[in-house]
Amino acid sequence: MKIYTKTGDKGTTSLIFGERVSKNDIRVEAYGTCDEANSMIGLGISQLPDEDWAKQAAIVMQKVQTVLFHVGAELATPSGKEVSWKLKEDDIRFLEETIDSWQDGLKPLKQFILPGGSPSASALHTARTIARRAERLAVGVEAVNPLVLSYLNRLSDFLFVAARYVNEQMQVNEPVLHEDLT
Fold first, then answer.
1. What is the SS3 string spanning 84-143?
2. Does the global pTM surpass 0.70?
3. pLDDT tens-digit profile of 57-81?
């Protein structure tokens, strides 16, 4: 099977169930942005060290990637149709429980931190900003599953904490906002 179909050569693409829309349709923008976030999470995972804590963190993040893939599928589904796999409250709860668990070992925030630190944490911070954009776009999708919006909102929180967790585990200082430099 060839990877290219040539069906999108004139600026349209198919949603799930075959409905064709413009490639700049809000649904395409939203699920494409989820794909961007997912790819950046993958980059963050690929830069983790070969240590036990990192292997466990990678498993958690890959589960998040899988759910995010399904979020994209929900966004790619036209109004009035349903995918067989639906986002559940448990998916959001998983993010919240992981946030709470990882945050327990972090120093309390006393000032603003800047995105950065280790290459892995930097990629996770970038994924966070992309997830925020996906959330903003998903708000405009007609009849979107409300759990999609909740998941994307919580995902950005998860990625913020994940970046901090990775920096802490790797003993890399988080860059902080320097008021005296502004």
1. CCCCCHHHHHHHHHHHHHHHCCCCCCCCCECCCCCHHHHHHHHHHHHHHHHHHHHCCCCC
2. yes
3. 999 999 999 999 999 999 999 988 8
